[in-house]
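The pair is set out directly below:
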Amino acid sequence: MSVLAREPARPAQLRTWPHAWLLAVGTVCFGAFMGQLDASIVTLTYGPLGAEFGASLAGVQWVSLSYLLTLTALLVPIGRLSDAHGRKLLYLYGFVVFTVASAACVLAPTLGWLIAFRVVQGVGAAMLQANSVALISTCAPPGRRRAALGIQAAAQALGLALGPTVGGLLVSTLGWRWVFGINVPIGVVAVVAGVFLLPRTRHRSSTTTWDVTGLLLLVTATTAGLLGLTALSGLTLPGWVAPALFVVTAAAVLGIVAHSRRFAAPLLDPALLRSRAVAAGLGGAVGGYLILFGPLVLVPVVLVAAGESELHAGLVLTALPAGFALAATTGERLLPASWSDRLRCLVGALAVVCATGLLVVVPLTPAWLVPMLGLLGLALGIFTPANNSLVMGVVPARTAGTGGGLVNMARSLGTALGVALVTLTLHTGTAESAARTALAALAAVAVALVVSAWLVPVRRPGRDPGCSRPRSARRARC
């Protein structure tokens, strides 16, 4: 086997060190940080991109949506490939692709080229994100998975937190191109760290089948649905296009269901999705990230329309991911250890309902937005790690890449819907009235989070909240 197709081993001293898993988690956090920094930082470029390329908000949003669609389509199939060929291998190659594509975005001559380079960047990001949850879940010791996933969620939140501020600063000073250039040095460091600190894959799946039909149906469903929302958001297209795209979306979804029942190794495994914990957890991941990313688009538009600068808008917006990071890092220690993942999800979801409800009625000024966005971030920081742990707790180790791909696919789908739905509401009226409509929609999604958490089955006594098997089998399973 070629050297380039093998996973490089860690140094012998590191493999035997009992705390080596923390270094692996820290390395994965590079990817988590980088992906979320990129996702949040780009929203600050919408205005300058529209001005430079003469494009509408509906057109410029595809700088984000092209990236997110690529993620949504590729996370599960890349997760399957990683289960068979090595999660560390594809993770490292993902960093290389992401870093090179980021450099290409810096040099993009037109909006079309920028969107094309963002698609390539999305391929690299899919290779990273499909393996991040799996690498953490398989290397963390028994009972520490939720804490490890909380560290990863905090790294994501740190990327989100720095994104608006760094993005606003870069856009206001050096220009939008540096928003993409910042990824390059981070990527170089992360590749080197990954080679030496990430463990090789111990449990592999024998399934190597590539479900091309399922992949095409998934791409069709997500692309047509988001294009339909974009058509309603002001993109210049004939009036019949949006309804036609939604019909195509519905047909593709039905096709996915029918194909998954017939194909031997479908892209979306019905056996996994039939689990109530997995189905409810994936629904929670979609809703949680929709609520997290909706304000990242909404708040800068509202504040800039009110006369604030991009930098000031970014500073205000930082309260949301900062609250998320605080809760994700301290929740494991501050919340009662006896609380199950399900109970943490319920508490977090109820707090999200309170925060989004308050945002609907308070004035949309910096003095009110900072504490309300901070509260929303805290609530999502409680909900998200527990929700991720619920899903990964019932996924077998040999298919951890597939399970991680499903979690991250749900996240990216929620992110894309948050961007698209907020853009749609902003097209319906003035910034103030449209913002109220968008926030009311987020509050409705928050109620759905409570329902999804409530639908998760209660664990039987004798099970560790951080592991889905009885204590006698914990070591073998986790």
